[in-house]
Structure formats: structure tokens, C-alpha cells
Specification:
single chain, mainly alpha, Arc Repressor Mutant, subunit A, 3 domains, 15 helices, globular
């Protein structure tokens, strides 16, 4: 494309603050820039699925891009949908007669109860049936979505190794969360579960890479991981960055580690091989003078640390 001056059509004007533009350019994430433009054009309103539809990206990509924007300080919180008022996050109390009438006359809800009881391997208590009816009546979740939600909560409990079935109070929190995110179809629910599984696996691999063994990642750490994933970094690169961060600062400082990864991204270095070949930190500089033996020893030691970090990741 030829260089020159161009006149852009401007039936509508959108102004981006200079600092925001500098941060977007510096982060190098095209998805983040598109998401920011969508938010600007929408007057500050944000709908993840609508944004994905308008930008030609997946919902997962937009979620990661939004995390990048949060990390850059360009957005603060997701705006609530204006299409409907927020409901109190509490299942209302139904009378015994209401539940009995629904079980007798409402074939759809009766099927939900039967399937949930088969899934959990036991009969539900009166309180549990009330909460389940709240998912169906108050939250207006379709039967197939409720069944998938129950199975999802059971799999999460098994993954954590609790050895027990999840409580209906926990399921209620998940149900309200799904409603907030607009999950009202089986397709949307299946897509959400798949994305959550991918993100959970990514957090697990990132925790190993960062040597976090005895706890879960914090929400702030997860946001950093989301932004790094959107930039194209895998666990191997995170292992090297974490090792360097701890070596230089004596602790796992997320801001310090973020600065390292952003510098690699600016240089186009994303894999372990690219980092070892292209990062000047691990390479002796050729100044035309005799190499400093001490400097060579240090860089060789750093390279060995990088290899050891990668080995630990592969061995789990």
C-alpha cells in the first residue's frame, strides 16, 4: 500500500483519548483495540456476545480482550444491560401448594425434577425442589439449561475433590451468574461450559508455570493470565518470565512479570525458543571487544535456569 495522506469518511465522529490510543498501540492486541472501539461506539455500553458478533471474534476472544483493557486501565467494569432491571439475587419463597400444583400439572418441571434426581442419585428435599423451581420460574431458565447447570456444578465439585455433591445454594449462585451473562439456551450454556473449561486449564498451567502450588490464582492474577493468553503467550513463556521475575525481585511480582512479557511481545517473542534466541537478557552482547568471562558465565547460568524452568513445567 502506498504511503500518503488519506481522508477518512466521517459521517459519525468517535474520539479516542491520546493516552488510550498509546496504551492500545503499546499492548499490541488487535482484539483489545476492536473491543475498545465497540465500547466507544456503543457509548460505554458493553455486551460480550453482541461485541463478538459485530467484530467477527469469538466470545472467548472478546472476554480475553476485555481483560486486556482492564489490565490497561481503559475500562473499569462491565455495564449492566439496560434491557431489563436487575432482579434481587434471591429465590422467592413458594408455597407448598404452588410446588405441588406445578408437579401435578406442569409436565416440564416434573421432568426437570426427575432428571435432577437421577443425576444426583437421590430424592430431592422440599427446600431443594423449591430452589429448583426458582431456577425454572423466577430465573426463567429452560429445562435443558437447568440440567446442564446441575451437571456442571457436580463436575466442578468432583474436580475440587470435595467428595460430596454440590449444595443447591451453590447451584443457585451459578444460576444467577448464568442469568446475568444471558445464558438462556442450551447452545449458549454448552459454549459457556467449554470456555470455562479452557480458562480453568489455562489457569492451572499458568499456576504451575509461576510456581503457585498451594493456592488458587487470585482474580487479579487471572486477569493478567487472560491478557497474556490474548497476546499469544503459553505456559513455557510464563515459566521463563516467572523465573526471571523471582530471580530479579525475590518474589512473584505480577507487574514486573507483566512488563517482561509486554517487552517480549513488542519484540515478537512469544515461545520459549524465540525468547532464548531473541532476548538480549540471555544473550552476550557483541561489542567488538573481548567477551567478559563473568558476563558469559551469568548469561549461561540464566539460560540454564530457563531450561530448568521449562523442564519443571513439562514434568508437572
Amino acid at each position: 500500500m502506498a504511503n500518503g495522506n488519506y481522508v477518512l469518511p466521517a459521517p459519525e465522529k468517535i474520539e479516542i483519548p491520546g493516552e488510550a490510543a498509546r496504551r492500545l498501540i503499546g499492548c499490541g492486541s488487535g482484539d483489545a483495540a476492536l473491543t475498545y472501539l465497540y465500547i466507544m461506539q456503543s457509548g460505554g455500553r458493553f455486551d460480550c456476545e453482541d461485541c463478538a458478533s459485530h467484530t467477527g471474534r469469538t466470545v472467548s476472544q472478546i472476554e480475553s480482550a476485555y481483560s486486556v483493557l482492564e489490565n490497561l486501565g481503559l475500562v473499569t467494569k462491565r455495564a449492566a444491560k439496560e434491557s431489563e432491571p436487575e432482579r434481587p439475587e434471591e429465590i422467592p419463597q413458594y408455597t407448598t401448594e404452588e410446588i405441588r400444583r406445578e408437579l401435578s400439572n406442569g409436565e416440564s418441571f416434573r421432568r426437570i425434577v426427575d432428571e435432577v434426581q437421577r443425576t444426583m442419585g437421590r430424592l430431592l428435599s422440599g427446600d431443594e425442589i423449591q430452589r429448583l423451581y426458582g431456577f425454572y420460574d423466577y430465573l426463567e431458565l429452560p429445562g435443558e439449561v437447568i440440567i446442564l447447570l446441575v451437571r456442571y456444578c457436580i463436575s466442578e465439585a468432583q474436580r475440587r475433590g470435595s467428595g460430596r455433591m454440590p449444595s443447591f445454594r451453590y447451584m443457585e449462585k451459578v444460576a444467577f451468574s448464568w442469568r446475568r451473562e444471558g445464558i438462556f439456551t442450551l447452545e449458549a450454556a454448552e459454549s459457556h461450559v467449554e470456555r470455562e473449561s479452557e480458562r480453568r486449564d489455562a489457569y492451572f498451567e499458568a499456576a504451575k508455570a509461576m510456581r503457585v502450588r498451594d493456592r488458587l490464582l487470585t482474580d487479579t492474577e487471572k486477569k493478567y493470565v487472560d491478557s497474556w493468553r490474548s497476546l499469544g503467550f503459553g505456559a513455557d513463556a510464563l515459566a521463563i518470565a516467572a523465573d526471571r521475575t523471582i530471580t530479579q525481585t525475590g518474589k512473584l511480582g505480577m507487574r514486573y512479570m507483566n512488563s517482561i512479557l509486554n517487552s517480549w511481545h513488542a519484540k515478537g517473542l512469544h515461545t520459549a525458543g524465540e525468547i532464548e534466541r531473541g532476548d538480549s537478557y540471555a544473550q552476550p552482547r557483541n561489542t567488538g571487544k573481548a567477551a567478559n568471562p563473568q558476563h558469559t558465565e551469568v548469561t549461561a547460568r540464566d539460560a540454564e535456569k530457563n531450561r530448568e524452568a521449562l523442564k519443571r513445567i513439562k514434568e508437572g
